[in-house]
Amino acid sequence: MAEYKIRDLEVLSGIKAHTIRIWEKRYTLFSPERTDTQIRTYSDDDLTRCINISILNRCGFKISKIATMSDRELHDHVMECNGKNSEDVAIERLIVALIEMDERLFRDTLNELIQTIGLTKTFTDKLIPFLDRIGIMWLVGTINPAQEHFMSNLIRQKVISETDRMPIPEKNRVDALLFLPEHEQHEISLLFYNFMLRDKGYSTVYLGQSVPYDALSSCIEKLQPQTMVTSWLTAVDDNFMHSYFKRLNQDCVAIPVLAGGIQINNRKDLVKDFIHEINDLPKQIETLIS
Known about the structure:
Oligomer: single chain
Distance between the termini: 55 Å
Number of helices: 15
Strand content: 5-15%
CATH architecture of the largest domain: Orthogonal Bundle
């Protein structure tokens, strides 16, 4: 059973810890367990209830009214509220969908966001903050591998689906070759990079996860891309990362490499001589190939 501290509830629900304590005391909205040192601990059910309360409160429901609702009534009112305020409460809906592994809620939330603000803003303004918020759940060990795969695959499917709707640019050259290094499996960012570039009319070739270096070299030689784009999230030895990009730079000296991901962000000094760190990919590509 998951255990959250009150600070975790604050981060995930957006409700201040002080407010949670007041609501708990005044309305008995939660019944946390306590450790031997009297520190409150909350369950997944408490977290889901807290997020649903947050959604209804932001939709205009008074806390005194919310306090009289059963969990079923909370859920039903949240569903009604979501259609009117889907963008405002999207991150909270995604967190609830993750906890409950509710595919319909997760997909409906993504679809509503994409229809309202487009995939690019959905990714940058909603999905990235969502992933930042649930980082606390990884830290306290409350997301299991099944939940992670559930979430990742739904996002992955949606980005692929939106990319597939686009026409393939009619160009004789490859503007960007997108790949992940060997042993790197986390491709959501790379898929989104591919979507952004296709959306701007660039010609791309997407190789995907864990591409062996020799196979990458052969592909580069065959396609002669204008740029290469990659992402690195998996923690590896410093020497391995440095050696990888140094070798790629030496083998493909005339082809710029654009790289993003948490490992790139955290180890800029290791690779700064061999890559361009991604910050505004379409503009960077435009500058490099113009």
